[in-house]
Structures are given as structure tokens and as C-alpha cells.
Recover the amino acids of this structure.
């Protein structure tokens, strides 16, 4: 049976100092930037060599027009319309229905594309909600 440490429950006892095996290890600090002696003593034509020794900086890339959307590399225009990949949230029952319907369509010899089903439903929604011309 384990022996309880009574001193932990004594209100008059001195507080124990907790320790770690890593207490005596040196702190991790960021190294100071320094130039090597060889770079300082180079000839006047050294700037080119000095630049080669420095880490290369990546060129600033222009921000995309729409940082949220990423066009799929496989996107091909369909009926004059290009695909654009997006992420949306759906309810579990909606996904279950689309999956079931897709499998039924494939068994019947069709394409069975859930993407096509969602695109068709969205086109119908847009036609319904857009103002009449």
C-alpha cells in the first residue's frame, strides 16, 4: 500500500519546489544574425557573391482576384460555362439522398454525377429567384 504524504496536507508546512530534468538546460534563443568573416574580406566584385551566399527571398506574388475560390486545373468549359471549385456545407440527409440517387443512376447506366445534380438544382433555383425579363 502506498504511503500518503502527510506534509502535503499540513497547512504549516513549507511549500515544496517543483523541478524538472530540463531545469539546468540552456534556454532556446533565436541566433543573432552575423556575417561570416569571408564575406567581409571579399573584393569589390563581391556583392554578386555575397548575394549568392544570402538566402534567396521569394518574389512577391500578386494576390489572386478571389483568394477564396481556386479554379480546378481540370475545369473545362461546359456549354460555354467554366467550372469553379467551391466548398459548401450540406445537411447529412441531403448528401445521403444525392449519394443514393447517384448510385441508382449509375446502376441504370447513367452518369450518376452528384455535381451535375447540384448544378442543375442551383440553375433551377437561380431561374426561379431571378427577376423576370
Amino acid at each position: 500500500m502506498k504511503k500518503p504524504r502527510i506534509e502535503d496536507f499540513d497547512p504549516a508546512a513549507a511549500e515544496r519546489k517543483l523541478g524538472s530534468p530540463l531545469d539546468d538546460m540552456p534556454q532556446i534563443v533565436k541566433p543573432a544574425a552575423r556575417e561570416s568573416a569571408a564575406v567581409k574580406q571579399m573584393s569589390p566584385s563581391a556583392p554578386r557573391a555575397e548575394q549568392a551566399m544570402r538566402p534567396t527571398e521569394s518574389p512577391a506574388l500578386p494576390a489572386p482576384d478571389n483568394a477564396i475560390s481556386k479554379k480546378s486545373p481540370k475545369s473545362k468549359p461546359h456549354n460555354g460555362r467554366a467550372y469553379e471549385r467551391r466548398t459548401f456545407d450540406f445537411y447529412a440527409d441531403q448528401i445521403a439522398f444525392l449519394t443514393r440517387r447517384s448510385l441508382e443512376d449509375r446502376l441504370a447506366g447513367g452518369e450518376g454525377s452528384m455535381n451535375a445534380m447540384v448544378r442543375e438544382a442551383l440553375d433551377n433555383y437561380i431561374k426561379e429567384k431571378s427577376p423576370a425579363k
Residues 92-129 form one domain.
